[in-house]
Amino acid sequence: YVPISAWLTSRVPSKRLYLFAMAVFLIGTILCYTAPTFQVLLAGRLIQALGVGVTM
User: Fold this and answer.
1) Could you tell me which of 28, 23, 26, 22 has the C-alpha nearest to residue 40?
2) Does the keyword Transmembrane apply (predicted)?
3) Rounded to two decimals, what is the model's pTM?
4) What's phi and psi for 7, nearest 5 deg?
5) Are 53 and 2 in contact (CB under 8 A)?
6) What pLDDT was estimated at residue 19?
7) N- to C-terminal Cα separation, the chain
């Protein structure tokens, strides 16, 4: 996701991109916290990884 985030940084202001990535991470965290099954937990972890990948 680092090459994608470099491309996004040239298109979107860095602050807005960072806030969006943190919001995605937060959504993934909430999904993990409320996960009733293991599959939902894995989906939450995937969403968290997408958010963190953009911030790197």
Assistant:
1) 28
2) yes
3) 0.82
4) -65, -40
5) yes
6) 93
7) 8
